[in-house]
Amino acid sequence: MSSINLLIDIVLLTMLVFTTIAIVRSRSLFAIVMLSGIYSLLSANIFIILDAVDVAFTEAAVGAGISTVLMLATIGITGYEQKKRRTISWIAPMVVVVITGAVLVYGTLDMPAFTDPSAPIHQHVAPRYINDSPTEVGIPNMVTSVLASYRGYDTMGEVIVVFAAMIGVFSLIGIREKKSEPIHAEPPARPILQVMAKFMIPFIILFALYVQFHGDFGPGGGFQAGVIFSVAIILYTLTFSQQDAMKLVPPWVLKRLASIGVLIYGGTGVVSMLKGGNFLDYSVLAHDPIHGQHYGILIIEFGVGLTVACAMMLIFFAFISRGDKNP
């Protein structure tokens, strides 16, 4: 590791520590949300240094982007200040933290050194994907090959988790749709924001489509594209109104599309079985295995992006509708 990289790592880790301390000590929920977004951005920078660009992409889009917006919508319901509680002793929590930290450190003592080329992961798992992925899958982006093909079951499970989270939010709070016209509290400033939003939203959607369909060749894929696409609609909602956004993308349509995305993923596996292959074995979807892998990955990534985008928009609508004080 070069000295400049070491210096950058030290600076980023130091900033992470100070950000964490600020989050723990702050009683303002708004400040905590903002600091959490900063923490996610710093983490994304660390992932970039580790050459995990796809992970950094996801952390920036989900951690610093959509999570921050959802938490802001949540404090619109709960309030901006943490409720005061009676003072408790910090000794017991500190003892628990120290013991837990010591156990975790002890558990890492027999692990291989960081970047050790003789570590098992570099001797068995990584060579298998690096050497065989170009001939078995044929996707330039090896991360996409692993996530969408070799780990297709796991990725499908992640999509179902997102879908289940959406169902859980609906079960708890639902979406409160208002029929009255929106009441804008600050009409002089809103037209400026609306003009800028109209300028930015097409580029955000275009970038989401690029990330969706370019994930085979570079960082990206359905998860990142879905979040970016939902951000465009969330920006539209924040600058116009909840009612305007729900007219543009009605919740009943989003619910069905989110379900269709999961069905596209699972249906691809069923079609693979009907054509004589294993579940999610894309090799049988075309006249040769490489083209079959290409088609299968494109299809399931589209299903992932569809479900993630719709789920994120619906969850946001659920939270913001509960915090809306308009009649």
From TrEMBL:
Name used for this protein in its record: Cation:proton antiporter
Keyword Transmembrane attributed: yes
Protein keywords: Cell membrane, Membrane, Transmembrane, Transmembrane helix
Keyword Membrane tagged: yes
Residue ranges occupied by any MrpA C-terminal/MbhE domain in the UniProt entry: 105-173
Location of this chain's protein in the cell: Cell membrane
Membrane topology: Multi-pass membrane protein
GO cellular component, one term: plasma membrane
InterPro entries on file: CPA3_antiporter_subunitB, MnhB, MrpA_C/MbhD, MrpA_C/MbhE
Ranges of residues in domain MrpA C-terminal/MbhD: 15-75
Family stated for the protein in its record: Belongs to the CPA3 antiporters (TC 2.A.63) subunit B family.
Pfam family, one: MbhD
Domain Na+/H+ antiporter MnhB subunit-related protein per the UniProt entry, residue ranges: 192-313
Stretches that traverse the bilayer: 6-24, 29-50, 56-78, 90-109, 155-175, 195-215, 221-241, 253-274, 294-320
PANTHER family attached to this UniProt entry: NA(+)/H(+) ANTIPORTER SUBUNIT B, NA(+)_H(+) ANTIPORTER SUBUNIT B
